[in-house]
Structure formats: structure tokens, C-alpha cells
TrEMBL record:
Main localization, broad class: membrane
InterPro entries: LeuE-type (IPR001123)
Molecular function terms, GO-annotated: amino acid transmembrane transporter activity
Regions crossing the membrane: 6-27, 117-138, 150-172, 192-209
Key word Transmembrane helix present: yes
Protein name: Lysine transporter LysE
One GO CC term, this protein: plasma membrane
Species in which this protein is naturally found: Photobacterium frigidiphilum
Organism classification: Bacteria, Pseudomonadati, Pseudomonadota, Gammaproteobacteria, Vibrionales
One of the Pfam families matching this protein, by short name: LysE
UniProtKB keywords: Cell membrane, Membrane, Transmembrane, Transmembrane helix
Length: 215
């Protein structure tokens, strides 16, 4: 499906990208630290789900159409910022007594999964990334179409990203295990996540989203 000669370069680029701190890494790490590994795993799965959706949109050419429309990009940016602000506000308003016990985090894990999916899909930079990054590794030497190659490349990117994020969850979750047993921290854990969502909202709203020129 893809030109194997470009695979080493592609994998090197993917690893380099995964090591660069970004909003996804911040959300997953803070979820793991504040609520434990289970919630962090679900946040990682949410990130992977949004990545699969963006891969499909890129392979079908839908992402490119959206990325070429400055108004659509700005609407996405504003919606994404508003959503993150609402999540931050909801966390800040949560009563400390509502903090879940470590053994009872299924509901919270599902919430973080949903939030990770939506926040990433409403991030125009994530969409532009797939539009600009994947086509660089589409080869004319392959018998597959550009859409098929982008689909395979995107799936590979998402698998490697999920593995990296699960490793991050394991590391950060282990470090935060003692914090989850600290009563003082548990009364403020929702506020920690609220602050993270506010930071992500400012990060998104303050950023400039360029319109890519696609030849």
C-alpha cells in the first residue's frame, strides 16, 4: 500500500513529532496524574479515535477542503476554544466531595475519552497537520492511490501515537499514584484539570491558524 523505501524517514518523523510536547500530551499526562492510569488510558483512546477520524477525512480529501476555507478554520478554532473553556469551568464548579474513588472511575474515564475526542476534532491545527504532513510521504512509485497511502500512513501514525501515549500514562500514572491517596490533593484534583482545560483553551484561541496552500 505504501512505498517501503520512505518508511524509515516517515517513522523517524513520527517519533520526533511524538516527542514534542503539545496539547494532547498535556491533556493525557494531566488526566493520568489527577485521576489515575485508567482515566489516562481512556484519554489516550479518545485521542486515537479523533486521529482515526482525521485520517479518514484526510484520505477522502475532506480535510483539505475545510483547511482551504479560512472561515471554517476560524469557526473550528472558536468552537474548540469555547468547548475547552466550558470544560474548565465545569471542572472548577465541581464539588470536591464528588471526586471519584480510585476504584470507581469508569464514568470519569468515559467523560475524559469524550472530551479528548471532541477537543482534538475542534482543533484546526490538528486538521491542518494531517493535510500537510501525510501527503509529504505519498509516493508516485506505489500502485496505491494517494488516498489509500494516506490512510495507511495515518493508521500507522495513530498506532504509534497510542503506544507512546499509553507509555506516558504508565509513567505519569505511577508518579501520581501517591497523590491520589492524598486527601488534600483529591479535594483539588478537579481544579487541576480545570486549570489544564483553561490553558488548552488559551493555547488554542491565542494561536494563529494559517490557511495551507495545497498544490
Amino acid at each position: 500500500m505504501i512505498d517501503l523505501s520512505i518508511l524509515p524517514v516517515y517513522l523517524t518523523a513520527v517519533v520526533a513529532l511524538l516527542l514534542i510536547p503539545g496539547p494532547d500530551m498535556l491533556l493525557i499526562a494531566s488526566s493520568s496524574l489527577s485521576y489515575g492510569k485508567k482515566v489516562g488510558i481512556f484519554a489516550s483512546l479518545g485521542n486515537a479515535t479523533s486521529g482515526l477520524i482525521l485520517t479518514l477525512l484526510a484520505a477522502m480529501g475532506v480535510s483539505a477542503l475545510i483547511a482551504m476555507n479560512p472561515i471554517a478554520l476560524q469557526v473550528l478554532r472558536l468552537l474548540g476554544g469555547a468547548y475547552l473553556l466550558k470544560m474548565g469551568w465545569d471542572c472548577m464548579r465541581t464539588n470536591p466531595v464528588d471526586a471519584p474513588e480510585i476504584e470507581q472511575q469508569t464514568g470519569l474515564a468515559k467523560t475524559l475519552y469524550r472530551r479528548a475526542v471532541i477537543s482534538n476534532l475542534l482543533n484546526p491545527k490538528a486538521l491542518i497537520f494531517f493535510v500537510l504532513f501525510l501527503p509529504q510521504f505519498v509516493s508516485t512509485q506505489s500502485t496505491a492511490t494517494s488516498g489509500e497511502q494516506m490512510l495507511v500512513l495515518g493508521l500507522l501514525l495513530n498506532v504509534l501515537g497510542l503506544i507512546f501515549n499509553l507509555f506516558l500514562v504508565s509513567m505519569v500514572g505511577s508518579l501520581g499514584k501517591s497523590l491520589l491517596k492524598n486527601e488534600k490533593f483529591r479535594t483539588n484534583q478537579h481544579k487541576v484539570m480545570g486549570l489544564v482545560f483553561f490553558i488548552l483553551a488559551i493555547w488554542l484561541l491565542a494561536s494563529q491558524v494559517p490557511t495551507p496552500v495545497i498544490s
